[in-house]
Each structure stands twice: as C-alpha cells, then as structure tokens.
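Sequence in, structure out. First:
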Amino acid sequence: MVIAAFGTYFCMYGFRKPFTAGQYAEPSLFGLDHKSVIVIAQVLGYLLSKFIGISVVASLRPRQRIPMLLLLIAAAELSLIVFGLLPTPWNAAGLFLNGLSLGMIFGIVMGYLEGRRNTEALLAGLCTSFILADGVMKSVGQWLLDLNVPEAWMPAAAGGLFLLPLYLFAMVLRRTPPPNAEDVEARSERSPMAAADRRRCLQRYGFGLALIVLVYLLVTILRSVRADFSREIWNGLGTTIDAGLYTRSEAGVALVILILNGALVAIRNNRKAFFTGLALSMAGILIVLVAVLGWNLAIIGPFAFMVLVGLGIYMPYIAVHTTIFERFIAMTRERGTVGYFMYLADAFGYLGYVAVLFARKIFADRQLTPMDNLLPFFLTLCLLTSGLCLLLLIPCGLFFQRRNHSSEAV
C-alpha cells in the first residue's frame, strides 16, 4: 500500500515541480520576472483546486478515485504542452491549468490510507514522497536543461517521463483493501461528510481547528517559498548548483521525517498521539529558529542551513498530514475524513502563499527587500512565521486539552 501510494504521488510531482529548476528570468506581467509569474499562476490553479476539493474530496466514493486521478494527470500533462506552445507571458495559463489539475491528487491518494491502525506509518511514507520528490524533480528538470531541452518544453518533457510509472502505481493502489473491523474500532469509520456534518464539526471544534489551520498556513508559506525558489535561495547562500544538489538536500530530511512521524503509530491512545503531534510541530518550529540563528552567526554553512530549515518546516507540515487530523477524528469520533480537513487547511495555506508572493513584489517596489536576492526575504519570513506559529500552538494545545471528549479513553 505504502509503495503504491508513494510511487503514485512521487510521479505526480514529475508534472508539478521540474519547471522550478529553470530560471525564466525574462520580464513578464506586472513588472515581475517570468518565473514569479508562472509560480503564482500554478499556485493560483492549485489554490482553486484545493477550494474545490474541500467538498469534492470529502464526498468522493472509493470507486471514483483512480478514474478521477488518471483524468487529472492527463489534463496536467496537456497543460504543460500548452505551456510549451504559447509564447511568454501567455504560457502562464498552462501552469494555471496544471495547478488546477493537480490540486486534488493528494486527497485522492490519502483516501486509501486513512482510518487504519497503522495510518501514521502509511501517511508518513506517502508524505516522504513529496519531500524527496521536491528535490528529485528539480534535479530531473536541471538534467533536462543540461541536455539542452528548451526551458519552455522542459516541464512537458519531464511529465512525459512519469506517465507510465504513475499509471502502473495507480493500478496497484486501486487494489488497496478497505479498513477492517479492527481498524474501524481503533480509528473510527471514515465516511463522506455531508454539509450538515461539516457544520456540526466546525461548531464544536472550530476554534482549535482554526488555530491548526493558521499554523499550517504559515508553514505552507515557508515551505512553498523554499520549494519554488530553492534555486534563488541557494544562489543567495553562495552555493554552486548542480543537478544533484536538490536531491541531496532533501534525502536526509525525508528519512528523518519518515522515522519521526511514522513512529507515532506506536502510540495507541489517540489523545496522546494528537498532543504528541502538536509537540512535534513545536519542536520543528524551534529548529527553524535555531537554523536562522546559526546562519546569522556563521556557525553553520549553506547546506546545513537548508537541511535544518527543511527539517523544521516539514515536522509540523507532515504532522498535520499524518497525525493531527487523523487522531482528531479518531479521538472525537466525528463523522468525516482527513481529506476534508487537509483540503480546508491547504486552501487557506496556498491563499496565504499567493499573498506573500505579491507582498514581496510590493516590498521590492518600495525598496524594503531586494527583488534580485531572495535570501534576506526568506530569512525574515522564517523568523516571522516561526514566531507566530509558536504563539498559535500554545492556545491550540490548551483548547483541546480542556475539551472533555466522551471517547478520551480510546
């Protein structure tokens, strides 16, 4: 199961991330360089897809998942061909359609893994796919550029490499058996949420869930800047970039995250596991702060800085995916799926990311941050988002600690 899920989502990244290895430095719309424009275009499509997915993923039946997944992947590859065909800046429309196609894939794959006694281990394996793929797909993009594939056609070429592998993994994934009786007893039954179910859940736990979503929003912003502009951050750190650099920096992060989050499956008590997930998130935020301090004091080098920041970002980011929402449903016995809560959080997370991209341009216009050097902006963002996350996690923990759940002993 985890191999099929890992492979499916890993291959999906072949349609999403290779383009970020390109420079696309020519001027484009709104006074921005073209890379910023196409990153924003893809994120806007992804954002819209997440809002659509709040209801679609929550109500999707198991038999509908793989057909929907394959249809979305085909649309994503066609959109990359559109990107190659259209001239700058209008080819940004291709990246918008690409993001719109790919935004619901994670929820579809996650639906096969949630609600099981070993869900953390399964989801940790799934989430490791996008940590590792984020680096590998940039390496694939850089490799294609080194082979003199034009920047405009490199994304479509990369996607073409992963069409067949993704199909094969998806065919294995569709054979995943449903949760058994022991899984349902341990983690509660997962069923589609009607509108009334969503309203009732938000009325009871809305404040605590809102704090989790806000933390996830901030972490998503930081993770997305690091992922989409890693080339520019590495340049700001004074590092010579080669095709394997992106993979090397993410491989260790992926391994540690897999071990940390997968180990939470050993905690059978759902309430304890939920609070352990919150504690793990807080520890990750502290690692980001330590990394920034270490860089500013010249204690650590560029590679260690990027690895530590990546580890610190992904600890809360993956904990939300693997544990926090999963154990929230299990301990409260609310009707619903992790996919609903994840898409609610993702929608606002990417909305915040779009806002930050535009804010960066405004600050650059006012000469508050240099547009041609992303590192100062990234360091400031690390400090601001980390501080806010710590302030939000404390009342979040207190809120859920004071709730008296009838299923507390589960």
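Second:
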Amino acid sequence: MPEVLRQIIPLGCGFTTEPDKPSFVPYVFAACGKPNPRVLFLPTASADSESSIAGFYEMMARVECRPSYLALYRQPKDMVERIEKADIIYVGGGNTRNLIALWKAAGLDVLFRAAWERGTVLTGQSAGGICWFDDAQTTSTGEPGPVKCLGFLPGSCSTHYDSNAARRPHLQKAVADGIISPGYALDDNAGLHFHGTRLHAALALEPHRKVYRVERTAEGAYRETEVPAQLVGPESVKA
C-alpha cells in the first residue's frame, strides 16, 4: 500500500481566481491531484463573516471544484463529516489568536491533523498560512507579536513581510531574543509547500516576491537568508 503524502501549503496571499491576477489555486489543485476536488473553506479567522463566505463561493465558481464551508460559530452537526470528505482544506485570513483558540476548543486541531494524515491538502493564506506551525508572528492585536499555533510544522512563519513595514524588524529581534522560533518569512504572493514536515519547495507568483529563512545565531543575533523560490506564476484563471 503506497504511503500517504501529507501536504501543507502555507501562503502569504494569492489564493484567488480573479481574472488576470496571479494565483496559487492551480498549484494547490495540482498538488491535490484529484479532478473536481472537494474544497472546504474555514472562515474562522474572519469570525465566519458572510462576506468572506460569499467571496469564497464567487472565487470557486471560476474553477472546477466542489466548494463547501464550515462556519465554526454555528457548530454544524455534520462538522466531522465535512472535514472527512474534503480533498483540500483552505483557511482564510483574519485573527490568528481567535482561530487557534476556537479550533482547539472545538477539537478541530485533532480533526485537521487526522485529515492531514489521510492525505487531505491543508492550505491557507495569512492567518490560514501561519496557523500550521509551532508558532508565528501575528498582528492580531494590532502590533506584531508572537502566537502559539497548531504545531503540525516545526518552527515559525510570518506573512506580509514586504507589505507591512513593522513585521521585518520585529521578527528579526523576536527570533534573536528567542521569543519566536526560527522559521520562514513570506512576502505577499509567496508561499511554501511541505511534504510531511520537510520543505518541498518555496514558491513565488512573481519574480520580486521572496521567501526568507530567519534564524538565531550562536551569538544571540539573527541571520536572514533568502530561500530560492520556484516561480509558479503569474497565472490567470479564466472566468
């Protein structure tokens, strides 16, 4: 029996099907490897906002898939069944601290780990990208700060590294001080692809989007190095 490939694809942003915008959607669907995949959306980080749910369905209407969503605030009775049926679990952006607290209270951390072990592709952008790591840099309280996450992937992750000026100096100091684990920093439209807990590829939709590794030196300083990224865009998904 072939070994199940466990995949997590954390993204800074770029999970979109808007025409003429670079998109990670074709890459994620190809990684899933199933025609007409079942895509389950978790809008927890945006407090299950109706606008984010409507936006998800509008986005998925442009591609061949079977979309559904799980509004955790409503605690649907078929929550376990929805997760078990998903080929791709996509997590939207928003408040990472709330997302982690609510998922753990509802037992979704256990259900998502089981889905990952079965071969369901886990992905998401912003809060939905960093939530899979041991810890992360978040702006859930306004200013950048540390947050403990699910621990599926070792180390840390930060997103919007090129679009939020406060993030880079904070992450560098936090890693140097041991407040945040060594890990990855993603520009917008950049991402990572893990097979199990091993980095399979760093990803970028545009040549100027970068992925970095931020580590603590023996002297208690930080070291930031660029991780060569595979260019997977720009992509356009036709309506």
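Remark: Residues 7-231 form a domain with the Rossmann fold fold (CATH 3.40.50.880).
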